[in-house]
Design a protein that fits this description.
single chain; alpha+beta; eight-stranded mixed beta sheet; five-stranded antiparallel beta sheet; 12 helices
């Protein structure tokens, strides 16, 4: 006799808060107490319920996992990148969860990277770091830093075994293979070497887990003796540190959501005082790249979509224009090489690259074959080079690596990610699929782009199921990308769509501005408009349409569930930011103060409070017929805390009990979910199996 798994019921403990004269009751605030055994027991009960409600999908999950595994070349090797006297690369081994980081000396006359089509180790390789060995005995493993010193002798690397994104920094002597006694706990991402590799710069966080200090560590000394180089007291700002490609300067990047400042230290004088390139001015963003006698400045001072200027590297001062502002063409970054500059930009919703010779002239754009694509620079550590490494992909073209000659304009394909035959033995053929760009009309008349991919034989009569993905925050662009796991959906007749909604950056800075602060609801109504357009245009129908998003895209999922529950048959919300108002009201929580320039400050501004309260998913749960909802989170997530989706699901189940709501919590992971590649494939198989079940494709 079996015992049926009970539906989890979270106890209600009404907790009141008052803001701007408004009293709000939160029955599930107690779930934020992570070390309370009752909290852990509740999360485990939700996991058990989710497992019981998806038990019938076990065979399908295995099938989908096998499809991902069989289509992936498990023993594989990246295209090596040259830095100094070595080629650097990583490789994977069949059956192993994590990558192996290696290098091999450059041989006489060798100008092109050595390629290993079968993924076998290169002859003469040196293993720098094996993630599988580091991860032994741990349920989670992540690398934070992986930084080889300019002379190639030392490797600075950092590890996290919990998912909290707090790393222990270590230094390995690559000439001997030994670890130095230097060990620095609780560091963040970002390191930079001094020119002679005698000093390493790194970053730590404050009590709210905000990166706020840059430190200088002298090799061979105790971490307790390290010196603070910069401490940022303004809680809106983060700090970061990096070494320029030229290896001439250490950059200390200081930025809020809308304001930035850069300080520089000569890499040859690591104990020098940081010099300010330009003092911060509210609302002015800029970034710095060193190039010969000048610093290149990419900025938005009087230039909404950014312009490029330069200033003296010896005495930074006035900014001299180099590329004027062009509305509608968003300049995103500039990379400096000895004789060329490469500008990454976006126009008409697509990424692009423009090459500028140092000697002058208009330069040229790099052409790409597909109307929908994503292109950008890959790793290019060499400053003096005549060719650059590019990465290219689309919804139907697997990740591709090219070398591009900056003078002859010749583009050489070095490698395209292999897609092996699936369990049925069928080869992947890009021509069997098609990608489209469609446009929805938002409530205010704005045209919103949608990217779609499907098999060529997919009907356009509304009978095909569809997954629509969205994000729409932080000016992040959801550019077209290829996915092996997605093929399992496409081959079962599913359409995959990406809604390029406001709040993202696909159509420039104004597209972002129209989806933040007191215009945030545009993000949600745009997504609903895209969903309704797909049904109206015959791509799908609302009873076959599943929405998916994560993090801030999870906020989107919760908001549209309240706004237009009839538009979707199901929703997948991963690490969802669904209790945004409570979080943004609490400056003691990680990242809250830095987020005020994105969402507004509801503590200080009653208009912001009322506006956020009107859309935050948790605040607006009501007794209505919701789509089926699968929420996924991680116990150690430091960006979107686990209790947000836990509270959301509890309230949904209490106020709208007629719905199907599932919560799946990774008990040993962070914001990115499981860390090993096989574990990540299993999670994707879990989501895809639930998706296929909900849209009627099993």
């Amino acid at each position: 006799m079996t015992t049926e798994t009970p539906v989890p019921v979270a106890r209600q403990v009404p907790t009141e808060r008052v803001h701007h004269g408004v009293t709000v009751v939160d029955e599930y605030a107690w779930l934020a107490t992570k070390d309370d055994p009752e909290t852990i027991n509740y999360l485990k009960a939700e996991n058990a319920w989710t497992e019981s409600r998806t038990a019938h999908l076990a065979e399908l999950r295995t099938e989908l996992f096998e499809e991902i595994r069989r289509r992936t070349q498990e023993t594989d090797l990246s295209v090596p990148t040259r830095k100094g006297r070595h080629w650097y690369y990583s490789r994977t081994v069949e059956g192993k969860q994590y990558g192996v980081h290696c290098r091999r000396p450059v041989r006489d006359g060798e100008t092109t990277p050595p390629i290993s089509p079968d993924g076998a180790p290169l002859d003469g390789e040196e293993v720098l770091l094996d993630g599988n060995l580091l991860a032994e005995g741990h349920d989670f493993f992540s690398l934070g830093a992986f930084d080889v010193s300019p002379d190639g002798r030392f490797l600075a690397y950092s590890t996290d075994f919990s998912g909290k994104e707090r790393f222990t920094l270590r230094i390995k002597d690559l000439s001997t293979g030994e670890l130095l006694p230097d060990e620095i706990p609780d560091t963040f991402y970002g390191t930079a070497w001094a020119a002679d590799a005698s000093v390493l710069f790194y970053v730590t966080v404050d009590d709210a887990w905000r990166p706020h200090r840059v430190w200088r560590h002298v090799l061979g000394t105790a971490a307790a003796d390290d010196v603070v180089v910069h401490s940022e007291d303004d809680e809106r700002f983060w700090v970061g540190v990096e070494l320029t490609r030229s290896e001439r300067f250490i950059l200390i990047d200081i930025a809020s959501k809308i304001t930035s400042e850069v300080r520089v230290i000569p890499a040859g004088n690591p104990t020098g005082e940081p010099a300010v390139i330009a003092p911060r001015r509210q609302g002015v963003e800029y970034s710095v790249e060193h190039h010969g006698h000048r610093f290149l400045i990419l900025h938005n001072d009087g230039a909404e979509d950014f312009a490029l200027a330069y200033t003296s590297a010896d005495a930074p001062g006035d900014w001299v224009p180099l590329i004027a502002h062009s509305p509608g063409t968003r300049l995103e970054s500039v990379d400096a090489f000895a004789d060329h500059l490469v500008v990454t930009l976006r126009a008409n919703g697509l990424t692009g690259l423009r090459v500028l010779p140092v000697g002058g002239g208009d330069g040229h754009g790099i052409e790409f074959p597909e109307p929908l694509h994503t292109a950008g620079l890959d790793s290019n550590p060499e400053y003096r080079t005549g060719r650059v490494r590019l990465r290219y992909t689309s919804l139907v073209t697997p990740d591709s690596v090219y070398d591009y000659d900056l003078v002859t304009r010749e583009m050489t394909l070095l490698r395209r990610r292999p897609v092996l035959p699936g369990p049925d033995g069928r080869e992947y053929r890009p021509e069997d699929y098609e990608q489209h760009r469609d446009w929805a009309l938002a409530d205010d008349g704005t045209k919103v782009p949608i990217s779609l991919v499907c098999r060529r034989d997919t009907p356009r009569d509304g009978s095909a199921p569809c997954v629509i993905y969205g994000y729409g925050s932080y000016e992040a662009s959801m550019d077209p990308w290829f996915s092996v796991g997605r093929l399992s959906l496409l081959d079962r007749g599913v359409i995959f769509a990406v809604a390029h909604i406001r709040g993202g950056g696909e159509l420039g800075r104004s597209w972002y501005e129209q989806g933040k602060l007191l215009a945030k609801k545009n993000t949600f109504t745009d997504f609903v408009a895209c969903a309704r357009h797909l049904a109206k245009a015959g791509w799908t129908s609302s009873d076959r349409l599943l929405a998916r998003g994560g993090s801030a895209g999870g906020l989107l999922m919760g908001a549209v569930a309240n706004l237009a529950p009839d538009a979707f048959t199901a929703i997948v919300a991963q690490v969802p930011f669904v209790d945004a108002l409570s979080t943004i009201l609490d400056p003691s929580l990680p990242l809250t103060v830095t987020e005020w320039e994105e969402w507004g400050n509801p503590l200080a501004d009653p208009e912001v409070y009322a506006y956020m309260k009107s859309y935050t998913p948790y605040e607006n749960v009501a007794d209505r017929d919701y789509p089926a909802i699968l929420a996924m989170t991680s116990l150690n997530d430091t960006r979107v805390l686990y209790h947000e989706p836990a509270k959301w699901i509890a309230r949904l189940r209490a106020l709208a009990p007629q719905g199907e709501y599932l919560l799946k919590t990774e008990m040993e992971a962070g914001h990115g979910g499981p860390s090993g590649r096989y574990d990540a494939w299993r999670e994707e198989a879990f989501v895809n199996a639930w998706t296929l079940d909900r849209i009627g494709r099993i």
